[in-house]
Amino acid sequence: MAKWDIDPPGVSGVVSRTGQRAAGFDEAAGRTGSALSGAAGSCGSEIVAAALAGFAANKAAPIDAVGQQTARILTGAVEASTAYVEGDLKMAATAQANATAVGG
To answer: What does the alpha-carbon distance between residue 31 and residue 53 come to, in Å, rounded to a whole number?
Structure first.
């Protein structure tokens, strides 16, 4: 039989730190987009500007997908940890009710 040993405060800490790191990734992606736009506007070459624009357009969806997947993973971790705690509380209440029924 599998044994679960989840530390809810530990999960909360990991989720918090990961969320902070993910926010940094979003900021970096925004700066990269701004830098590409600036480079395209300043390069003086229509070919290079078009290549930079194409690169940015091609990479936008995968970069957004990383952020969205990270958010889903963090939400799942919080929901799983919450369900674990709720299950423990329900089992404790059931055990207490059964003990009272046997003793009463």
So the answer is: 15
3-state secondary structure (DSSP) of residue 45: coil
Q: State the Cα–Cα distance between residues 48 and 81, nearest whole angstrom.
A: 49
Using DSSP's 3-state secondary structure scheme, residue 43 falls into coil
Contact present, 37 and 56 (Cβ < 8 Å): yes
Query: Are 67 and 22 within 8 A, CB to CB?
Result: yes
Check if the beta carbon of residue 22 is closer than 8 Å to that of residue 70.
yes
CA–CA separation, 71 vs 2, rounded Å?
Answer: 28
Radius of gyration (Cα) for the chain, nearest Å? 24
pLDDT in tens, 28-72: 888 998 999 999 999 999 999 999 999 999 998 998 899 899 999
